[in-house]
Write a structure and sequence with these properties.
CATH topology: TIM Barrel
Strand content: 15-25%
Number of helices: 12
Low-confidence stretches: none
Number of strands: 19
Distance between the termini: 8 Å
Strand order of the largest sheet: 5-16-17-18-19
Bound molecules: zinc ion
Mean pLDDT: 96
CATH architecture: Alpha-Beta Barrel
Largest sheet: 5 strands, antiparallel
Number of domains: 1
Radius of gyration: 21 Å
CATH superfamily: Metal-dependent hydrolases
């Protein structure tokens, strides 16, 4: 089926009205003579590069009661994503070429978004022995990002070796910065509130100490570090200083750390239990400032689906994590655009272009480049929505249920065809 479209009268990131012409899935300058195009009225919609998430937990293989590659792909398409990075903490762990190729293949079968596997740094995420990084890099899954996310690579000698190893293929180590000895049984941000609630505290320094160490190791090895889900003002400052020194570090912040604070723990509702924990308003302010000034490179969802029984329990027994793919855009718009702090240009960088560059994806984050395959997201900045518990994700551990957001995704175009159209998933089989 031909994939020829004209997206008429969309607004680009610079505020200009554009007609985007797509022929056989690729962006072209103007419609070719004799070619039939489907014309789609996009007035009132802003066209953005398809979003790229660096941090998604798809749970397959092993935990398919929470999410599968197919259901996570639907959530991603509905959230405006054209590429997502599947974290390695599955069962079996994605620590071999075989598992990362399996995840990539499941992504291709679903066909709604590019599923880019992340490889584990250590065998079984155990932090003892390096995984087969080279074999994963050379596999069909072409892994460039390695992470033990969920666990911290806390052994400094192992972290140093991983940083040295990934240089051979311009890879990057994505660290879940959590000093384990400082977070034994930790439940929420450490401070007056954790003391009052009687929940074990999780100090900001547990994150900052690892980031400081890893920045030094990255400088020593002239390698590349990515810091997952930065959550404190202190971490932002460490990364800011490192960038000034020329250290090759990139960093992500989650939508929930940009919006929510530790105060939500007061009701002991585990829907707000997350790793790293929600922090204080002063941390939220510093994260937002870091996102605006370029210290933080990307918004990454840390979409972490869990079945009901893992969350319908007391705080201490509940699992860490919340879903995030389908609300990321609305939160990004609120933080960057509606606040008056930044622009759609910056929003496109932090939701797409920068993540694509970190991962070395050549067909993503390219925006309206003539000749490139169309990976685009069209949003309605005025659209008002109230979050419901049932979404495309299989899991409902969603902290935003009942909240109202302004701004939402209307269409997602992945690999030259609609994966989400007029707020409906377009299954590949329907094409
Ligand atoms: Zn993590």
């Amino acid at each position: 089926m031909p994939r020829n479209y004209i997206l008429q009268s969309a607004t680009d990131v610079f505020g200009k009205s554009v007609d985007v012409v797509i022929e056989d899935g690729a962006i072209v300058e103007k419609p070719a003579l004799g070619v039939e195009h489907e014309k789609i009225d996009c007035s009132g919609l802003t066209v953005l590069p398809g979003f790229v998430d660096l941090h998604t937990h798809l749970r397959e293989p092993g935990f398919e009661q929470s999410e599968t590659v197919a259901s996570g792909s639907r959530a991603a398409a509905a959230g405006g994503f054209t590429a997502i990075h599947a974290m390695a903490n599955t069962f079996p762990v994605a620590d071999t070429a075989g598992v990362v190729e399996q995840v990539a293949r499941l992504g291709e079968d679903a066909g709604l978004v590019h599923v880019q596997p992340i490889g584990a740094v250590t065998v079984g995420l155990k932090g003892e022995q390096l995984a087969e990084l080279g074999a994963m890099a050379q596999s069909k899954a072409r892994v460039r990002i390695f992470s033990d996310d969920g666990n911290c690579v806390h052994d400094p000698a192992l972290m140093r070796r991983a940083l040295e190893y990934v240089k051979a293929f311009d890879g990057v180590v994505a660290q879940h910065a959590q000093e384990p000895r400082l977070t034994v049984n930790a439940q929420m941000n450490e401070g007056a509130l954790s003391a009052k609630l009687g929940l074990a505290g999780w100090p900001g320094v547990a994150e900052e100490a690892i980031i400081a160490r890893d920045l030094m190791l990255t400088e020593l090895t002239s390698s590349r570090l990515h810091v997952c889900h930065v959550s404190t003002a202190g971490s932002v400052e460490l990364i800011r200083q490192a960038k000034l020194r020329g250290i090759r570090v990139s960093a992500e912040v989650t939508p929930h750390h940009l919006l929510l604070t530790e105060d939500l723990a007061s009701g002991y509702d585990p829907i707000y239990k997350v790793n790293p924990p929600l922090r204080k308003q002063s941390d939220v302010d510093a994260l937002r400032a870091g996102l605006v000034d370029g210290t933080i490179d990307v918004i990454a969802t840390d979409h972490a689906p869990h079945p009901k029984e893992s969350k319908d329990t007391d705080w201490a027994s509940a699992a860490f994590g919340m879903v995030g793919l389908e609300s990321a855009y609305s939160i990004a718009q609120q933080v960057l655009i509606d606040s008056g702090e930044s622009s759609f240009e910056r929003l496109a960088e932090v939701l797409s272009t920068n993540a694509s560059a970190i991962s070395g994806l050549t067909d993503q984050g390219t925006y309206l480049s003539v000749g490139k395959v169309a990976n685009l997201t069209l949003v309605d900045p005025e659209f008002k929505t109230q979050v419901e518990s049932k979404t495309q994700s299989m899991s409902e551990n969603n902290p935003y249920v009942g909240r109202s957001f302004t701004g939402g995704v209307v269409h997602t175009i992945y690999d030259g065809q609609f994966s989400y159209r007029n707020r409906q998933i377009v299954e590949r089989s329907a094409l």
